């Protein structure tokens, strides 16, 4: 994915893709392209969430070290 979307932008676009797919009005080729875009957006969102989770875990570990030490 060439462009760099924020988590919020990726999530909003993913929601739009899902709505289009659920409407069922797109031709098969368009539906496949939408599905592929949705997969990329979902992966990007998951990467953001994994990064946030790692930051929280790191902060908790640092806080635990301060309180134990």
Which structural category do the helix and sheet elements fall into?
mainly alpha
Unreliable runs: none
Content of β-strand: under 5%
* CATH class bucket: Mainly Alpha
Shape: rod-shaped
Figure out the total of helices: 2
> Main beta sheet: strand number and arrangement?
none
Helix content range of the residues, please?
Answer: over 70%
Say what the CATH topology is: Helix Hairpins
Tell me which CATH architecture applies here: Orthogonal Bundle
The mean pLDDT is 94
Instruction: Give the oligomeric state.
Output: single chain
Query: How much is the radius of gyration in Å?
Result: 18 Å
Number of strands: 0
Distance between the termini: 44 Å
What secondary-structure arrangement, pairings included, does this model have?
Layout: H1 7-23, H2 28-68
Helix pairs in contact: 1-2
Walk me through the structure.
The chain has 69 residues and is mainly α. The chain has a single domain, classed as Helix Hairpins. The protein has helices spanning 7-23, 28-68. The protein is rod-shaped. It starts with 6 loop residues before the first helix and ends with a helix.
């Amino acid at each position: 994915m060439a462009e760099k979307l924020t988590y919020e932008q990726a999530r909003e676009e993913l929601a739009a893709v899902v709505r289009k797919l659920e409407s069922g009005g797109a031709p098969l080729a368009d539906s496949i392209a939408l599905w592929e875009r949705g997969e990329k957006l979902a992966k990007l969102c998951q990467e953001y969430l994994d990064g946030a989770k790692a930051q929280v875990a790191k902060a908790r570990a640092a806080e635990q070290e301060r309180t134990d030490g």
